Structures are given as C-alpha cells and as structure tokens.
Amino acid sequence: MAVQVDGSLAGVDWDQCKRDLAADDFDNGRNAEALRRSFENSQHVAFARDGDRVVGMARLLSDGVCNAYLIDVWTLSSYRRRGLGRAMVDRLCAAVPGQHVGFQTDDAQDFYAALGFRKQPEFMSTVVGTWLDNVANRAAAAAGE
Question: What CATH number did the domain enclosing 115 receive?
C-alpha cells in the first residue's frame, strides 16, 4: 500500500506518534494529549499514513487573511526522501492562498528552500513563563494523560 497524505485527525494514535517523535529525536516535550490538542487547535493539518500508521505530520496556524505559520513538520526517518514532507507542506500551503507562510527550522534550510521558501531578515521569539507550563498541559497531566 502506498503512503497517503490527508487532512483528517481521525484514527491518529497519538501515543504512537509521541513514541515515534521521541525515537526520531523530534520530541519537543508535549505529552500525547498535548500533541493531540495542538493539532486539533490548528486551522490546517496534514498526515502521511502508511495504512493506519502515521508516518508524517505537519500543521499550519493562520489568521485567514495574510499570515500563516507552518509548524511541527515531521516525517518518520525511515520514510524520508520519498516526497512526503513536500506533499504535506504543499497541501498546507494550498489551503492558504495569498498568505505569507513563515516557519522556523534549525537544520532543514535546504529542504524548505527547495519548496520555494526564502530566508527572511530575522525571526525572534520568546517563551512566556516556562516552556509547556500552561493550563492545557496541567489539565492533561492532572487527568493522567
């Protein structure tokens, strides 16, 4: 069966995704429930699936007018270099025509340049308080998730 890319949250095994992200050294500290909530609260999502297994994911936040932010783009290491990352990013960008799409990456500049992204003068950010210490994550932890 060929890997398929879709925009559905249905059937995602968030615990397995969390394990795969951690094994791939792409885990930013969210637990499975927080990962699910991140995707559910995004305007657009994309998943690469090999049967029932998620082998890639990405999401896009957008104001629906002029600006969007691409985030959490990941493909399982053993599935890389098959066009899945490109397919997910293309799907997400197609959902926001006429918008500026930004992102941040530590080490995938060549990949994004091949997709038409260009460097911008600067990107700055801050964490308010302590990373992942917020109401959503405390509620998930209290529920044992």
Answer: 3.40.630.30
